[in-house]
Design brief:
The complex is a heterodimer of chains A (296) and B (337). Chain A is mostly helical. In chain A, 84% of the residues lie in helices and 0% in strands. Chain B has a six-stranded mixed sheet, sandwiched between helices. A four-stranded antiparallel sheet of chain B has the order 2-1-4-5, sandwiched between helices. In chain B, strands 11-12-13 form a three-stranded mixed sheet. The two termini of chain B are 31 Å apart. The A-B interface holds A 189, 191-192, 194-202, 205, 209-210, 213-214, 289-293, 295-296 and B 76, 78, 101-107, 109-111, 113, 115, 117-121, 130-131, 133-135, 162-168, 170, 178, 182, 188.
């Protein structure tokens, strides 16, 4: 009955050969295509660097103004706008301006990238049940696999730096936008679609004129979630060389600097709250038409 | 009938996994219940043939589950039939490819839905212009035509409202305006007024009749309400369990119901408002005296009949020729069926 006491695992030797084979194969792949991939991502890197420099070069009063105006355009609430500006003022006074700009840059670029990729993928999923059943498990893996695990191949391929950080953030942050775009389009009222059909709308006209606009509140909820998740990756991304608010947090962890960690952590929270409130109230304004005037 | 605008021939629709395999069974006479129990397929439409005349209102009536909404969706092919033929202006719509079909839906047919089917994110004026926009009409012209139809259905002043801000009756006016804006030859109305309360429904029927006097569309109107059918329909077809059980004008349905099912239907209606003298006249060549036109409703004829000498009155066609006479006794017995 010895069999039942210990699980009949493969031998240590077999296992280590297996792992070695996989590692070697990946290393080979990395040697072969690493450079090509780096070249491929080069424009992205340039864009990210350019954007970060732009944010840093812009005089702080102008940034404050832009923050205020964007918050106003999004939320139409002076409370949220004023709150956003005050949060940035506090960040500046506490000496975290540069790190915040760097974080802002990577969050903006990765959110932009997620929207650019995520919405079309979501639309594709909504149009084909087979695509949905194939992509959903991939999204599940992306959301649940510990980030450190996919940092390994990313770093092996692209080394340490901004682009691998960006990719890591995107892998973690893209699922909500894909899921909610898919969901939003699938939830569009069948009768409205039938009406569009009855008037001879082409699939393209239906997508652009009916499905996407009606899915917009859901898509926006997805964008909101994506931003939140991107922000929560800031600290992990800093482990592979992304500058920003994550770096001091990391330093604080290894050196037990309570105040430093708390300050930078709270700055991340402040960014998160601003992004969340602004994008949520914008999303709500998008569905103003849903509020009837209480006719029967 | 050669002037049929829409011609439906031996139409079958079976819902389920492999409808084509079930078709021969149904043609051999398998009933709806059998098909459902033995093969788990639902028989939606069963050998329906119907010629819909041009520029008239064709009502298709039946209770829920009778297949009437399924039938109307075949006319613009929102539903694909399992068997049979559908011709519009002699053209087989089942042979159309996607592009041609879209063309048909854009220009020749338009549809009004029970639950309105409005686009909630677009304002009234944008909803009304939707069909035109799909056709690719330039925006200025879209807006102009939309405005015209908004006024025509009595919604002036509500152009910038969203559908969600309007009452049911107003929403359906938007639906009607949207359908009319593309100037279609065929108007498909799927229980268009069924979701409205009785007074509003009556109003909408009046609007439709008024517009029809001027526009002369070919209208297919689905309803479960006999009063509505009798009021609107130049022709009425009655469906039960997906099969056509009677068709004819209001008189025929009321005076000569094909079976108990229809008789049951027509039992409670006000016959005086439906029956015309035309269908009661008995030939009487020698009659000299007061006459009424053949289209006079019984209800209106009764008081005159009661005053007439010998309680008899002549009935004339529009041309003035005498068809026959009607006695008060005939009239009253027709009222009681």
């Amino acid at each position: 009955m010895e069999v039942f006491e210990e699980f009949p695992a493969l031998g240590r030797k077999t296992l280590s050969t297996m792992k070695k084979v996989i590692d070697e194969a990946f290393k080979g792949f990395s040697r072969e295509y690493g450079q090509a991939l780096e070249d491929f991502f080069d424009p992205l890197l340039r864009f990210l660097v350019w954007f970060e420099k732009l944010l840093l070069a812009t005089p702080w009063p102008i940034i404050l103004l832009i923050v205020g105006v964007l918050a106003w355009l999004g939320s139409r609430s002076w409370k949220i706008s004023l709150g956003s500006v005050l949060a940035f003022v506090a960040i500046g006074i506490l000496g975290m301006w540069e790190d915040t700009m760097a974080t802002l840059a990577i969050i903006s670029v990765s959110t932009f990238l997620c929207i650019l990729l995520g919405i079309p993928i979501g639309i594709f999923m909504a149009r084909s049940d087979r695509a949905q059943s194939l992509i959903t498990p991939v999204l599940d893996v992306m959301q649940t696999i510990p980030s450190f695990v996919y940092l390994i191949p990313v770093v092996m391929l692209l080394g340490i730096g901004k682009v691998p950080g960006l990719i890591a953030v995107c892998i973690y942050a893209i699922p909500p936008i894909v899921r909610l775009t898919n969901l939003g389009i699938r939830l569009v009222d069948k009768e409205v679609l039938e009406a569009a059909d009855a008037f001879g709308a082409s699939p393209r006209q239906k997508l652009i004129g009916v499905q996407v606009p009606l899915a917009l509140p859901n898509i926006f909820a997805g964008i909101n979630q994506t931003i939140m998740m991107a922000l929560s990756m800031v600290v992990i991304a800093s482990m592979i060389g992304v500058k920003g608010l994550g770096v001091p947090v990391l330093r604080a962890i290894s050196n037990q600097y309570l105040a430093l960690g708390l300050m930078n952590g709270l700055a991340i929270v402040a960014l998160a709250i601003i992004f969340d409130r602004v994008s949520q109230s914008y999303g709500k304004r998008l569905q103003a038409y849903r509020k009837g005037h209480g006719h029967d | 009938m050669t002037d049929a605008k829409i011609r439906i021939k031996n139409l079958y629709k079976i819902f389920g996994k492999s409808p084509a395999k079930m078709l021969p069974l149904v043609k051999e006479g398998m009933t709806k219940t059998e098909l459902l129990e033995k093969h788990n397929h639902v028989l939606g439409i069963q050998n329906v043939s119907l010629d819909i005349p041009e520029k008239r209102i064709q009502v298709v009536m039946g209770l829920s589950g009778s297949g009437k909404s399924t039938l109307i969706r075949h006319i613009n092919r929102l539903i694909e039939p399992t068997g049979g033929e559908i011709l519009i202006d002699g053209e087989d719509i089942l042979a159309m490819d996607d592009k041609r079909l879209r063309q048909l839906r854009r220009t020749k047919t338009a549809m009004v839905f029970q639950k309105f089917g409005l686009l909630p994110h677009r304002k009234v004026k944008e909803n009304v212009a939707y069909g035109l926009e799909i056709q690719g009409v330039e925006p200025v012209k879209c807006a102009e035509r939309a405005q015209y139809w908004i006024e025509r259905v009595g919604l002036g002043g509500y152009e910038d409202h969203y559908p969600g801000q309007l009452s049911g009756g107003m929403q359906q006016r938007v639906g009607l305006a949207r359908a009319l804006a593309t100037d279609p030859e065929v108007l498909l109305m799927d229980e268009a007024f069924s979701a409205l309360d009785p007074l509003i429904r009556f109003d909408m029927q009046s609007i439709l009749l008024e517009l029809q006097q001027e526009l002369h569309k070919t209208i297919v109107f689905i309803t479960h309400d006999l009063d509505e059918a009798l009021r609107l329909g130049d022709n009425i077809a009655i469906l039960r369990d997906g099969a056509m059980i009677q068709q004819g004008d209001a008189q025929e349905i009321v005076l000569r119901p094909a079976d108990d099912y229809i008789a049951d239907f027509t039992k409670d209606i006000n016959r005086g408002k439906v029956i015309q003298l035309r269908s009661l006249a008995t030939p009487n060549t020698g009659y000299q005296g007061e006459t009424l036109s053949a289209g006079t409703k019984l209800e209106d004829a009764l008081p005159i009949l009661a005053q007439a000498p010998e309680q008899t009155i002549g009935v004339t066609q529009a041309s003035g020729t005498l068809i026959g006479t009607v006695t008060l006794r005939d009239a009253i017995s027709a009222l009681r069926s």
